[in-house]
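Good morning,

Both structures are done.
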Amino acid sequence: MNGECKLDYREADITHAERLKEEANVHFSAKRYADAIDFYSKAIAMCESSSTKPHNFAAYYANRSFAHSKTEAYGYALADATKAIQLDPKYLKGYYRRATAYMSLGKFKEALKDYEVVVKALPNDKDANRKYTECNKLVKRLAFEKAISVEDTKSVSEQIDIESMNIENDYSGPCLNDGKVTLEFMKELIKTYREQGKLHKKYAYKILLDVKKYLEKQPTLVHINIKSDEKFTVCGDIHGQFYDLLNIFELNGLPSDTNPYLFNGDFVDRGSFSVECIFTLFGFKLLFPDKFFMSRGNHESVTMNRMYGFEGEVKSKYSVEMANLFTEVYNWLPLAHCINRRVLVMHGGLFSKDNVTLKDIENIYRNRQPPEEGLMCDMLWSDPQDAPGRSPSKRGVGVQFGPDVTKSFVELNNLDYIIRSHEVKAKGYEEAHDSKCITVFSAPNYCDTMGNKGAFITLEGKCLKPKFTTYTAVSHPPVKPLMYANSLVNLFC
């Protein structure tokens, strides 16, 4: 009798878990990915606590893996897909999901191996063959590029001859004044971009070369001093959402000597107006070099740009040469800014080890692609967590750090708090770790799907108390996000 009761209890658990999974599927279909993850997790926990598992238990992990990918938690997605494969090595969707996570992390060879498993099992599956073929092309292309690269070759910036570039008679866009950016030029540039016009390549190259020349002289950690009665604005990720960038300027005023800004990385990718965003920001950087600041984000890198659209957009609107020049410029972007020596601003977050000082940040060599570990990696990729201590990153790169880590860091460096970006937040911002760690994200309705608000922070020099302004997305021309992304991204999104 007792055995029969126990069996019924187990069956009830499995039935309940299956209902939770189905509810999670409903949330996923409605793009409520956080809710979907929550319900998948409850279903998994119920099954894990039972000695009897459902026959399709691997699907629970594979489904949660896909939901994690939708929230850009690619480290968690990778772990869940791997668990699904361990539970059922013949479960092909597990290989699909793991390949998606690998692709998102730029681990193309690993993704290819998983796609190969699926193709061998399903040789007539058109979708599997398409993904395998596209991934194989990318791996071969990267291998070819590596083979023909020579270290002592001249940089792109050394090979560009601007003087030989002619301005066509029918060009009606903005023109640099004696090679210099002016306020009139910036207003005309914004007007041109708003109307979906294009900046002439001669002026585009000139801006990039001038920005590179300026950034090369800047330190890795830039100190910013603002006066006691001065307003200073910090913006987070823009991600190619040009019309939302213009909305920030509508709400808060154009950058000027009396209206300084800091944009905290991820200016490009995903949104399909990244070229417009970056030239607008670089233009203001040249116009107000001491009042307009830009930090590097994890998307100012070759791997991210190749996958999520910026490289493809630059090639479409200009050339391969210009895409390569952008890489050289991005390598010189500062990694952090410190406001009045009291507020540190960086794109990602804090570090995988204790006792990191501002001096350590100043000494980081930044003229390179982001490494997969170390201080530079952490600054571009890490995220806060509620629990104390540190955990492996949900993204698969960097680390997650708790309130105790933040507290120790700000105390060691005599800071009031830190500002970072890097994460979508429903309100556009979040105060965490006893308000010592503030997130600001400035791309509303991220990728036209997330429904989040955008936000920016204004500070006054005297007290440096953050004031948050939130806003919703504005309309933009009918160009979809990720339009220029690698074809594989659109296949697995």
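Second structure follows.
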Amino acid sequence: MGGRCSRFGLCWWPSNLKSNLPHSSDLDREYEKLSVPSFREYSLDQLRAATSGFSVDHIVSEHGEKAPNVVYKGMLEDGRWIAVKRFNKSAWPDTRQFMDEARLVGELRSERLANLIGCCCEGHERLLVAEFMPHETLSKHLFHWDAQPMKWAMRLRVAFYLAQALDYCSSKGRALYHDLNAYRVLFDQDGNPRLSCFGLMKNSRDGKSYSTNLAFTPPEYLRTGRVTPESVVYSFGTLLLDLLSGKHIPPSHALDLIRGKNFLMLMDSCLEGHFSNNDGTELVRLASRCLQYEPRERPNARSLVIALAPLQKETEVPSHVLMDISHETASSASTSVLTPLGEACSRTDLTAIHEILENLGYKDDEGVANELSFQMWTSQIQETLNGKKRGDAAFRAKDFSTAIDSYTEFIDGGTMISPTVFARRCLCYLMNNMPQEALGDAMQAQVISPDWPAAFYLQAAALFKLGMDNDARETLKDGSLLDAKRKRN
């Protein structure tokens, strides 16, 4: 976050801002790409710091320290939450093989995946870094629910999104997925299901996958010990059984029930009256096809997507509603607590913003370089400072037009730079209903002080005024993450 020129790129910002802005849908697509960083290598020190020294308190693996490869929750210096998978010491002795495999998986980018954003390979350490999914696993929501069982519409959505994830991976030449189960399906900040990228990596140097549940593995796996694309579809079938029943059912037993036309005995009793028999029958049929003994008789990933698409219900209802996750928790803009300035900017409460900036004074200008020669000090600086003083007096008196003129005189003098002056003129522009100019000033403040949360908050206020609410919320999030980083330091 630090050092970048805002999500809009200051260098190309036009004077006629509103008419030159990309369509909001185009922006959404751009930000979707930007929200997932490019794959990179991290140092062991960075990941050790992010996880508080690989503290047991940061472990998020379902089986804790007993897992062969432990997963930790961590936070990078820029405030981004991450999941770090730490392989055991005997895995991946070949450094190049590990790096090559990680880079290939790191090229994938999909909203249906918890994407791989980096890795670390130092000494005997082998670590993967992925997007962090805050709302736990399908196993937790399906088998260990507290308040209410997962709704039928959400179970259908999980199956569909998971099929889309597998289809995407297959289209990119990554059809093999190791140990596909309910622990591998995660839920993001909006309650949407995503497939963990960790299963796309081989588990060890020989390329074999060691399942955690041999009873549910594909028949051919027991013969060869290797995963094939057809094996992945078989595992998908076991997941469909999980979604249908709300519990683990051995595939052999499930197939016996299906052959005996007792498929309703497969259904989760908690779902009674909440689904149509036709939909239930279709999902059972699909599971049966996935669980065929002969691999060639199973459907491929694209066929799964086609079969599940017509079953999708309540498509207009967001996942966080179906999952009963509060909107505040699900919203990416609310993952951090906003400061009073952030709150005021989120409401575009200009009076409150004025009061906060007035009380803040110029303390955030400390550390901004203003090197002046003696000649400049004696001949030019006095008039420049007088312009700033006149601007401050007008700002205090809420004479915002005069403040704009005076601050402009100070800025155009060019002998000193002040992020606070840009912030104050930004608010003056907002008070005069000039949000385009206000946004430009907030961005200039950020260029001068890249890690100053106020610059991001003021950008958000201007964006709200311009009707660009999605972008404003993302910018609020950037500011809140910087505030959180400051508190940690």
